[in-house]
Amino acid sequence: MASSRVKKLKRDLYDAGTKLLALASSATTPVPELLNVLDQVDGLLSKVEQRPFGSMEPALYVSMKALISDQLMKHSDIDVKVSVASCMSEITRISAPNAPYHDAQMKEIFQLKLMALGKLSSEDPRGYSKALHILDNMTRVRACLLMLDLECDDLIADMFKLFLSTIRNDNHSSVVFEQMESIMTRTIKESDEIPEELLDILLTSVNMREERFWSRTWMLAEIVLRNCTSELQHLIPKFVRSRELNYDDYCTTVATMCLNFTEDENVVRVSPSTFTFLYGIKLCFFTQNSSSKNVDTYNFRGLRIFVLVIFFFAETM
C-alpha cells in the first residue's frame, strides 16, 4: 500500500514538475496558471520524506530544474517569487543537511526566502501562509547552518532585522515568536565569529531610548541574548565599551554582562538577583524626563515590573 502511494507521488511530482518547466520557459504564461502549478508542486514536495530513496530523484530533478530557472527566480510577479521560495524551502528540507544547489545558487535562494518572509507583515492571506510555511521549514531543517556555511553574513543580518521588525506586530502567534527565537539563537550559538553588526542589531532592540520597553521586539531580542549568554558575555561588554555606550540604557541581560565583565578574577561581581533589584529601581524612575520618544509609557510599566522584581528578589534571598 505504501509502495503504491510512493509510486503515485513520484508520478504526480514528475508530471507537475514537467508542466512547471514548460510554463516557466514561456514568457506568455498567465500568472494565475503559474501560481496554480506552483501550488501543486509545493503540495507534492511537502509529502516527500527527507533524503528520499534514489528512485524519487528523477521526479525531484524536474521540479528542481524548473524552480532554479531565472524565469521563476527572477519573475516580475511578487506572488510567483513567494511561491517559488515556498517550494525551495521544501527542496531544502528534503535534501537537508546537504545543500540542493551550488553555493551561488543557494545564496540567491536564501535571498528569495528572506524576501518571501517579508510577507509575515502582509495582510495578504496567500503570502502570509507561504511565509509561515517557509519559516517553519527553516526552523525544522536548521537552515541557518547552511547560511553560516555559505558565509551569508549580510543575509543573516537582514534576517535578524526582519524578524525583530516583524515580531513587533502583536497579531503573530507564539509559534512564530518561538521559531524566530530558535533560528536567531542557533545562528549565534553555531557561529565561529559573531559579526559586530549582529550585536548592534540586538542591542538596538533592547535600548530604552530606541525601542518601547517590553515590546515583542524587545522580548525577542532579550530572550536571544539570554539564551546566548555564554557566547556573548565577553563580546557585548567589549562592544559597549568600544562604542562608548551606557549599559544602563539596555535590558538587564546586557547590563548584567557589562557590570560583571572583568578580566580580573579577584573582582567581586554583583549577583544577578541583586542587580535585577537595583535595575528595577532604575526602571521605576525612568520617566518622561528622558529624551526617548517612547519613554512616556515606561513609568507605569516600570512600576509593575519593579513590583515583580521585588518578589523575585525576595525569593532568591
Automatic annotation (TrEMBL):
Cell location: Nucleus
Top-rank lineage group of the source organism: Eukaryota
Pfam families: PDS5 (PF20168)
Alphabetized UniProt keyword annotations: Cell cycle, Cell division, DNA damage, DNA repair, Mitosis, Nucleus
Gene Ontology BP, a term: DNA repair
InterPro entries: ARM-type_fold, Pds5
CC terms in the record's Gene Ontology section: chromatin; nucleus
Name of this chain's protein: Sister chromatid cohesion protein PDS5-like
Gene source species: Heracleum sosnowskyi
Lineage, top ranks: Eukaryota, Viridiplantae, Streptophyta, Embryophyta, Tracheophyta
